[in-house]
Amino acid sequence: MSYLLGVADAQTRMGRFVLTGSQQFGLMDGITQSLAGRVGMLTLLPLGNAELARAEAAGEVRRDSLEQRLWRGGFPALYAAHRQDVQPAQWFAAYVATYIERDVRQVLNVGNLLTFQRFVSMCAARSGQLLNLNSLASDCGISQPTARQWLTVLQASHLVTLLAPHHRNFGKRLVKTPKLYFLDSGLLCHLLRIASPDDLLTHAMRGAVFETWVVAEALKHRHNLGLPADLHFWRDNHGLEIDLVFEHASRLHAVECKSGTTYSPSWLQAARSWRALVGDEAADPVLVYGGDAEHRGADYEVMSWRSVGLGQRLSG
User: Fold this and answer.
1) Is it the case that residue 311 has pLDDT exceeding 80?
2) Could you give the C-alpha distances from 87 to 48, 77, 116, in angstroms and in order?
3) Where in the chain is the domain with CATH 1.10.10.10?
């Protein structure tokens, strides 16, 4: 880093170097030269739906169904041309073992690694749900401060994210608890012990896995543009909830996620109720679902999962 500092100061043209790699907690702690003011930091999450769609169109990867896309996730190693036959279950098992045995030991004093592994699995079972730290800690047999510390490590390593509730209440009492999401649906399916894509067709967590995938895709889109996350959900104390809320062009946008493959008009009921509360600031809500057909109504849009990430309708 000190060498690059000298080069950057001697020649001020930007963009000469691209430094990539997985974040190692110990390495980051040991860096004394931050290159402040001379670098731009980009967070690269697993491959997005748009990237995989382009690879499918070019014949570089096989065309997936929704269940296959959710189950495999977006880690590049599972799509590399020379590794197309890699079994996701085996790859994820090795990934989790390596992460727990190497990276976690660098930052946490975990006396029992099996307890931490159970903690990760318990987080997976709560993906797409309101985060209750007391319940999570109790189920894992750890204290709440420990659960908070471990969750912070999962966030720092980009395995999970917390979606904050939207701060404007529109005359309603709102929940103030964040929602927990994993950032890769394939890893989530592995931790949920979903053995195959076909198992997702009737699995009790299908809706949560799909919602997790949509939220992760929205975050990828913003990270790839170098933008802050600025994504929220909205839920009042009566249970009315919008999966994604974001501000764009002075309007509030709502996104609803439904994993079903056949569109139902009732799916837009919550979005319409929310829009009535927001008033003129609300844009037409978008419904993302598990089917292929798309259409636009007078005051809404229905988007196929295949279109997620291909435009800016999902996260601004």
Assistant:
1) no
2) 20, 11, 25
3) 49-307
H or E element, residue 267? none
pTM for the whole structure: 0.90
286-300 average pLDDT score: 95
Encoded amino acid at 281, one letter: E
Distance (Å, whole) CA 316 – CA 307: 15
Rg (CA), the chain: 21
CB contact set of 33 (below 8 Å; sequence gap of 6+): 1, 2, 5
Quick one: which of 166, 134, 128 has its CA closest to 148?
134
| Residue 56: strand, helix, or coil | helix
Residue that is written with structure tokens 């296959």 in the block: 68
Sign of CA dihedral 71, 75, 79, 83: negative
Decide if pLDDT at 206 tops 90.
yes
Across 231-260, b (16+ Cβ under 10 Å) vs e yields bbbbbbeeebbbbbbbbeeeebbbbbbbbe
Tokens of 254: 């709502």
Beta-strand relationship, 251-258 and 286-289: parallel
Please state which architecture CATH assigns to domain 49-307.
Answer: Orthogonal Bundle (1.10)
CA–CA distance from 274 to each of 128, 288, 316 (Å)?
A: 20, 17, 19
Amino acid, res. 265: P
In one letter, which amino acid is 269? Q
Of these ranges, 19-33, 86-100, 106-120, 293-307, the one predicted with the greatest mean pLDDT is 293-307
Residues comprising the chain, all counted:
316
Q: Please say whether the beta carbons of 253 and 283 come within 8 A.
A: yes
Separation CA 259–CA 101 (nearest Å): 35
- Please report the pLDDT score of residue 81 as a whole number: 63
User: Residues 6-27: what's their mean pLDDT?
Assistant: 75
Task: Tell me the two tokens of residue 90.
Answer: 């085996």
Nearest to 238 by CA among 170, 176, 173: 173
